[in-house]
Amino acid sequence: MDPRHITLISFGYFDADFLRNVAEAVKKEFLVNVNVKEGHLDLSEFYDPTRRQYNGVKLVNEVENNYSSDHSKTIGLFNVDLFIPILTYIFGQAFLNGRTGIASSYRLSNERYGIQTDDRLILERLIKEVVHELGHTYGLIHCHIPTCVMRSSTYVEDIDQKGSKLCINCRNEYNRILK
Amino acid sequence: MAKKISILIVDDEESVRDSLFNWFIEDGYHVECAENAKKALSMLENEGFDIILADIKMPGMDGLEMLRRIKLLKSDSIVIVMTAFATVDTAVQALKDGAFDYVTKPFDPDDLSHLIRNASKQITLSEENENLKQKVVSLENVEDLIGKSGAIKLVLKDIESVAQSNSSVVITGESGTGKELVARAIHSNSPRRYFPLVSVHCGALTESLLESELFGHEKGAFTGAMYNRKGRFEMADNGTIFLDEIATISTKMQIDLLRVLESKKFVRVGGNKEISSDFRVICATNRDLKSMVENGTFREDLYYRLNVVNIYVPPLRERIEDIPLLVEYFIRKYCTSMNRQPVTIDSAALSRLEEFNFPGNVRELENMIERAIVIGNGKKITLKDLPLEKSIISNSVESLDELEKLHILQILNKYSWNISRTAKALKVDRVTLYNKISKYGLKAE
Ligand SMILES: [Zn+2]
Ligand SMILES: [Zn+2]
Fold this sequence. Notes:
The structure holds 2 protein chains of 2 kinds. By secondary structure, chain A is of the alpha/beta class. Chain A has a single domain (about 5-180), classed as Collagenase (Catalytic Domain) (3-Layer(aba) Sandwich), CATH 3.40.390.10. Helices cover about 35% and strands about 20% of the residues of chain A. Chain A has 5 helices and 9 strands; from the N terminus they run E-H-E-E-E-H-E-E-E-E-E-H-H-H. Chain A has helices at about 15-30, 55-65, 120-135, 155-160, 170-179; strands at about 5-10, 35-40, 45-50, 55, 75-80, 80-85, 85-90, 90-95, 100-105. In chain A, helix 1 (about 15-30) crosses helix 3. The longest helix of chain A has 19 residues, at about 120-135. Chain A starts with a strand and ends with a helix. Helices cover about 45% and strands about 15% of the residues of chain B. Chain B has 3 domains: about 5-135, Response regulator (Rossmann fold), CATH 3.40.50; about 150-310, P-loop containing nucleotide triphosphate hydrolases (Rossmann fold); about 315-440, Helicase, Ruva Protein, domain 3 (Orthogonal Bundle), CATH 1.10.8.60. In chain B, helix 13 crosses helix 15 and helix 16 crosses helix 17 (about 420-425). Chain B is elongated and about 90 Å long. Classes of the chains: A alpha/beta, B alpha/beta. The interface of A and B includes residues 83, 93, 115, 141 and 157 of A. One zinc ion (ZN) binds next to helix 5 of chain A.
């Protein structure tokens, strides 16, 4: 696999500028080529009516099987509420040391928590989510440095507490992996 | 570093095993799985696991029976049972039989991570108690607090002596000195390090926003709120809350804050349920709180509750001997993050840095080095890469126009009045640049 290439595929509507910003931030962080594509999936196949959410396990496998390639790390971007059977929700997930991940902006929006919308904040949060999941595909695990993007965030405003960059340890690890 | 904590997952459902396996592997644990109790028990006989996460309902031997046998095998094993809604009664039975805790499927990710951190904390604390008897722990994870001066050593010593306790701390010092780094270092070296360090920048928020920010609100408290919002105090449960710019909060907030600090209990906005949270509080300010108490703008009772320990972070100009080490450290940091070969700094540039008075302190030095690496030749940082000559950080500049004028002049001089390069650096077109030059009457020296 070529780890020096990243593909972001949007499934569902995202503003073009918004996607460009995500791609730029990802490119800046991993210093590799980043491509943005549009994917078309019938999401109803992944909808679970009892939970009224979308199955993240099935979605990540769908992206892995039908959209990923050995020439790139691939992240599917969604704007629906994701779950996995054992957890009530997820912001995203990825195959550790693999080539595929997914992330959703759904629960990153302030509105759902009754606070004023803040487009810049959604963008920042999604960037952190995408960089984080990509980190996992490169084999990085969670980091305890409070500002590191690889710190685990299980609550939406936890994401705001960390930065969008790899800390120096994770960065060194990434550089080592890429060599 | 402590050894990796190991987790054994016991569940008959493959999807559950897989999801939990991935979740814990990404969290840095050593993880193994078993699909039934019999297999789990035989694995446990061969290999110890720190935490066992087991489903209650399994074909064959159920989780409760397995729990009893595990406890016979090793009485201090940490067993967490997983249960579906219908079987909460059995979960209560499991607690009586010595389970550490139980979780209801599907889990809230936040609850799961809290639970596992609780268990990990218990394990490492008991190991650390053993180690403590033998040696004094030294500080770990002290990012960016670099230096050998007496002044910074004193700060590190203060961090070390306060980290293990639960005392409230007020960190004082000019802006840019690294007060937040001190707070992080205290947290990362305290028993609370497995739990979040939650920062709140009090100065950036209006009173009503700060209230929801700190205490959270119930869904429905505002139109469109589909989920409850946790406040910072709730997020900091078992961890540390860092209140930056504490001197800026209103008198009403001071009363609210005092109440929470005294009771460790609060109510979410729009809610009526009392929530308790066990947090440690660390504050920072660049103001003199004591004199604010004297002139009546900061409550005395709150001041004494917060200021149990005071840590003063000195300005960079009082620790000049640290500048070479800091420069070297920031060079390494930014060359790594930009994936560049390490650069050096020439001695003339370094001595000029040692003479500079750094009104913006370490942060200003860090920004300078980062910028110098970006604009430099990739080999050596020299004087011309450092904005020391005509510093625009001057107290006499107040208006934006004046600042713009000085900045444009500085960049023009830097590029020897080459208009194209200056315009490019300023990210404006050449016409705009010419207009500005004539507006401000700028001339080449
Ligand atoms: Zn993660
Ligand atoms: Zn890290």
